[in-house]
Every structure is written in C-alpha cells, then in structure tokens.
Amino acid sequence: MTARTTRTLAAALSLTAALAISGCSDSKDDAAEAAPTVSGAFMPEPVNDKMAGAFMVIKNDSKTADKLTGVTSTLSDDLQIHETKDQKMQQVPSLDVPANGELKLERGGSHIMFMGLKSTPKVGDKVTVELRFEKADPVKVELDVKERTYTAQNSNAH
Questions:
Q1: pTM for this entry
Q2: What φ, ψ does residue 21 adopt, rounded to 5°?
Q3: What is the per-residue pLDDT for 6?
Q4: Which of 15, 89, 95, 112 has the highest CB neighbour count under 10 A?
Q5: 3 falls in which pLDDT band (50, 70, 90)?
Q6: In the predicted model, is pLDDT for residue 29 greater than 50?
Q7: 48 with 148: CB under 8 angstroms?
Q8: How far, in Å, are 29, 39, 43, 141, 149 from residue 145 at the CA level?
C-alpha cells in the first residue's frame, strides 16, 4: 500500500467513525424527541369571570418521566395547577407525567384553574393554552368550551 492510499483509507475511516458516533450521540433529551400529546381538552363554560377549570389527558410516549410545571393563556394572567386530595382542592407547583404514561386532568381530580378571567368564553368558543414542562418543549392546546355539565366519557376518544 502506498502512503497516499493509507492516508486516504485513514481519512475515510475517520470520517465514517465520526459520522457513526455523531449519529449515536445525537442525544437530544428523550422527552424533547417525544413531545407530550394532549387529547380531550375542554373547559366547561364559566359561570362568571372569576374562575374556570380546564381538563384533558396529557400523554407522554417518552421513556423519561416529566412534570407539568406551568400553564399560560391570554384569557387569564393567573393559571394554577391544582390537585384534589381527600376531597380538598389545593394548588401545587407541578404534576407528574409518567414515562410511557399519562396525566389525567379531570373533574374531581387534578386540573387547571383560570383565576380572574379577562372575558367569559361561551359554549362553542376555543381557548388556547400553553402547557409548560420540566423537560419537554411547551405544547399549545385548544380547549373546546363545553356546556357546564359536560363530562368527558372517554377522554382518549378525541
């Protein structure tokens, strides 16, 4: 083998190794690769402009657990994450979204509260929220405004 052939082979092998390594180590966080998905998102029509609730199912197909850490919307400057324990509602800083699992935000359980609404949405309207997570990128969700008595029968049907 000539020196030139050896150098060419060495360069080709180095390039191949570099490409293989970079392909394997494109270590974007698993949570960012599999963004959470949302189904069955709705808001019962608020009675007044003081408060409203939001309900949905957040699915995490990632191998990494995550947390819902915040929610924003133009409808209110004060959105809170609530959980219900022992029939008492309380604000919490975050809710777990298990790896390869889901977080159900539903009546009588964990949910999102809008405090001090800037307007009062009516049945048929849509309200946009942005969900924020500890690891995954934010996710925009449209809430369908439903009748006050509406309860999702099968949250996964949407």
A1: 0.76
A2: -65, -45
A3: 47
A4: 112
A5: low
A6: no
A7: no
A8: 34, 14, 5, 13, 11
